[in-house]
Amino acid sequence: MASKKNDWVEWIKILLVAVVIIVFVRMFIAVPIVVEGPSMLPTLENGDRLIVEKLSVTFNQIERFDVVVFHATMKKDYIKRVIGLPGDKIEYRNDQLYVNDQPVDEPFLAEVKSQLEENTTYTTDFSLEEDIKGNKEVVPEGHVFVLGDNRTNSTDSRQLGYIPMDDIVGVAKLTYWPIDKISLLE
C-alpha cells in the first residue's frame, strides 16, 4: 500500500515540475501564436501557427526586418515586420524603402512586387515627418516602426504610429503549422 502512495506522490511531483517548466518557458522564452488576418501575406497566412521567442526583446536585440508580435490594444496583439529602429529616418518613394536616405531592398517582397502590373506600386509613398502620427523626423528612442508585408491591407505604423519596445511580445522565429510550411522565418 505504501508503494502505491509513493507512486502517486512521485507522479504529482513530476506533473508539478512539468507545469513549472511550461509556465517558465511561456513567460520568459517562447510562446505559440496564431496569425489572424491577411496583413502579413505573402510571408504569413491567416491561420499559420508560429513560435515567438521572447529573449530578443528581453535583451533589446530587435533587428530590422524581424517579424514581431506586439500589443496593439489591451485585448489584441498584431504581427508585423520591423522596418525602422530607434533613430532611423524612414521614407517610401516610388515603391522603394529608404532608411536614413539610403535605398534598402526588401527581399521578402520581391516575388509579390514582380507580379505587379507596370506603373503600379505596392507601398504608397510616405515619410515619417509628414505622414506618420507624431510628425517626427526619425523613429523615437524606445520605439520601432512596423509594416505588414501586405502593404495594401495592413493596419501598421502608418495608422498606429510608433510601437513602444515595451509593447513587443517577441520575435516570430518558426512556422510550425501547417506542416508543409514548417520553416524558420526570414
UniProtKB/TrEMBL annotation:
The keyword Cell membrane applies. It is found in: Cell membrane; Membrane. Its main location: membrane. It comes from the Bacteria. It catalyses: Cleavage of hydrophobic, N-terminal signal or leader sequences from secreted and periplasmic proteins. Pfam families: Peptidase_S26 (PF10502). Keywords: Cell membrane, Hydrolase, Membrane, Protease, Transmembrane, Transmembrane helix. InterPro entries: LexA/Signal_pep-like_sf, Pept_S26A_signal_pept_1, Pept_S26A_signal_pept_1_CS, Pept_S26A_signal_pept_1_Lys-AS, Peptidase_S26. The active site is at S39, K80. GO terms for cellular component: plasma membrane. The keyword Membrane applies. It is a single-pass type II membrane protein. The chain crosses the membrane at residues 12-35. One of its GO terms (molecular function) is serine-type endopeptidase activity. Its EC number is 3.4.21.89. PANTHER family: CHLOROPLAST PROCESSING PEPTIDASE, SIGNAL PEPTIDASE I. Belongs to the peptidase S26 family. This is Signal peptidase I.
